[in-house]
Amino acid sequence: MRRSWQKSLVAFALAPALLLTGCASSKSDMAAAAAPDNSVPSLPRVAVRADAQTRADIRLQLAIGYYEQRQFGVAVDEAGLALQALPDLADAYSVRALAYMEMGQGQLAESDFLRALKLAPGNPDFANNYGWFLCNDDRAAEAMPFFESAIGNRSYQSPGKALANAGACSMKLQDAQAAERYFARAFQYEPASLATNVNLTRLYFDRNEFERARFHIGLAAKNNVLDVQALWLAIKIERKLGNQSAENDLAVQLRRRYPSSSEYAAYQRGAFDE
Questions:
Q1: What one-character DSSP code corresponds to residue 7?
Q2: The pTM is what?
Q3: Hey, where are the domains in the chain?
Q4: How far apart are CA 140 and CA 258, in angstroms?
Q5: Residue 2 contacts by C-beta under 8 Å, 6 or more apart in sequence?
Q6: How far apart (Å, rounded) are the C-alpha atoms in residues 231 and 219?
Q7: For residue 182, what is the DSSP state?
Q8: What is the pLDDT of residues 219-262, one digit of tens each?
């Protein structure tokens, strides 16, 4: 039987959309600057707040850096230090939530996502990230309003990301029509997106719209290395279209890059409809 599209979901990596300014030029400088200055006996309240903001911003920048390097435990620690300096810093809760999510700490992640949203209820990045958390927690129906909230926010700088996530979540809900609508809109914002193009390819392949499927897998492959599932899908598309030369070229790639894969084994035995 044909592999169901909802089980072939392309995942989306999430990162906090946040840039801070005014931080030290190196990590060692930032760490040194983050240490509290206990030599000053007293400071005006405004100055104390400014000092706390500076220390929190430095720790938050470090947390983001470690998150992007996939050092999630260190990112959690740095975000915690930012919150020690400034307990109402919503961005620190958001970054820590993302790190907890990657670590599989669902309860801690959800607590921080909700705290961030409570502190900044109109933030579209927070809504999108919490929606993605819910979608991956098998709560896809709960996730959709958060994606819609992010998509509908005119100040949102990355609507394509939320649209693509909403499309992926719709696939989990087995709503192919909604998924296509979301992915088509995401494609308008980010036509080179690997995930969006591969997911559109899967949708069109399952509808036997093989030319449209070929168009999107071609865009996906243009600037990206296809994973084994996407490459196998490309082979099946060319086979459906009767393009033996293109199929052979792709099969060479499959054999060279993924010789031990179940997809290459399927190709060898001619199992194109499994």
A1: G
A2: 0.77
A3: 210-274
A4: 32
A5: 206, 273, 274
A6: 13
A7: H
A8: 999 988 899 999 999 999 999 999 999 999 999 999 999 999 99
